[in-house]
């Protein structure tokens, strides 16, 4: 009897140790995340349980991702689903790293992937891997072609290119004998191809000569600066009438190249996108002509709403999902938002009015007087 009692006590002790180990395990400490509890997927239609959502962004050279997309997405998720956990990773323009991050997120219990692909072709494998685990994927900002994604959230990218090109032509006035340099975005980003397509639809029939055109790897400002330096050397510093750039970071590099060559950027109209603080400041003092304002708050919050709907097993409202885009794998339910062209004349009514950047962040030092002139205080 004493032997049986000892055996029973040993079994009970082993069970207790096993339960304690299970409660303490499972955290690899390898990802940046915000959590308010939860973990694992909620039951269909549940509103009081959480789940894990992975937000995977592509790079940090474009300032919007860390400064806008990430915090706005996280805030909206937490407002809609306080018990949801967010796994956040940025791939720093490394497609292989992003694939590893997605795999780690799946291993760590992600029930939804919100994926802004570094390389759209490489991301197909990530989507297929998620589907094997029955995890839905929201393509964020960049379309992933030929893959079974569940939703796509972005802007009308072809229209972005058209707005940029038309603004440049309007500023140039006549096109007779004029030539421009064209800086497109990364060739691995399908959005870059859309911007390029839209721009060419406006520029090609206009009569303007595109003297040099580059597809800039990684959206790199440094590489855009080198490309512009090459173009100025080849064409002559007095022969560049304007520069089309697909985003603000690259035009910053191009403007640096112009200054280095002795060209006053105030005499050469230029385009951009993303409404970065530095770009808005350049526009205020006349060194950059325009940028594209993207309502990133609406984009990030729309993606967050879709992710939470997928966690809870609820159908998103028709007012949110307003379009369909065929990505080669089928028609993808899409949230498609409108871009806005911004020049010095409407910074106050767009960037400032929407709270995208506060005046206190823009109107610093040498830019204070230019803000006053534009009616920004």
From TrEMBL:
| UniProt KW Signal keyword | yes
- Give the transmembrane region(s): none
Q: Which GO terms describe its cellular component?
A: outer membrane-bounded periplasmic space
Segments for region (Disordered)? 27-52
Where do the coiled-coil regions begin and end?
none
Which compartments is it annotated to reside in? Cell envelope
A Pfam family annotated for this chain is: Peripla_BP_4
Main localization is other
Protein name (database record): Sugar ABC transporter substrate-binding protein
């Amino acid at each position: 009897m004493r032997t049986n009692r000892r055996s029973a006590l040993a079994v009970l002790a082993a069970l207790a140790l096993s339960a304690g180990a299970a409660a303490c395990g499972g955290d690899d400490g390898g990802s940046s995340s915000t959590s308010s509890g939860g973990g694992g997927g909620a039951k269909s239609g549940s509103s009081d349980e959480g789940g894990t959502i992975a937000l995977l962004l592509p790079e940090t050279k474009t300032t919007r991702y860390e400064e806008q997309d990430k915090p706005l997405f996280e805030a909206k998720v937490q407002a809609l689903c306080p018990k949801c956990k967010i796994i956040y990773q940025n791939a720093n323009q490394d497609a292989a790293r992003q694939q590893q991050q997605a795999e780690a997120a799946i291993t760590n219990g992600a029930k939804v992937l919100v994926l802004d692909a570094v390389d759209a072709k490489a991301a197909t494998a990530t989507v297929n891997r998620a589907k094997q685990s029955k995890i839905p994927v929201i393509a964020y900002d960049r379309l992933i072609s030929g893959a079974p994604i569940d939703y796509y959230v972005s802007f009308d990218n072809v229209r972005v290119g058209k707005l940029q090109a038309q603004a440049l032509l309007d500023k140039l006035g006549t096109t007779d004998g004029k030539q421009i340099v064209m800086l497109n975005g990364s060739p691995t980003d399908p959005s870059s191809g859309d911007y390029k397509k839209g721009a060419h639809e406006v520029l090609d029939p206009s009569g303007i000569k595109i003297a040099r055109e580059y597809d800039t790897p990684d959206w790199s400002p440094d590489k855009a600066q080198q490309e512009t330096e090459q173009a100025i050397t080849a064409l002559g510093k007095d022969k560049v009438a304007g520069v089309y750039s697909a985003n603000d970071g690259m035009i910053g590099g191009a403007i640096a190249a112009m200054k280095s060559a002795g060209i006053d950027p105030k005499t050469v109209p230029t385009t951009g996108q993303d409404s970065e603080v530095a770009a808005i400041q350049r526009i205020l003092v006349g060194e950059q002509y325009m940028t594209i304002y993207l309502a990133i708050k609406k984009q990030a919050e729309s993606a967050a709403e879709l992710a939470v709907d997928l966690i809870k097993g609820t159908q998103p409202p028709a007012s949110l999902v307003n379009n369909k885009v065929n990505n080669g794998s089928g028609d993808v339910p899409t949230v498609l938002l409108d871009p806005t062209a911004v020049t010095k004349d409407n910074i106050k009514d767009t960037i400032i009015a929407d709270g995208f950047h506060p005046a206190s962040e823009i109107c610093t030092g040498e830019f204070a007087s230019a803000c006053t002139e534009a009616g920004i205080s």
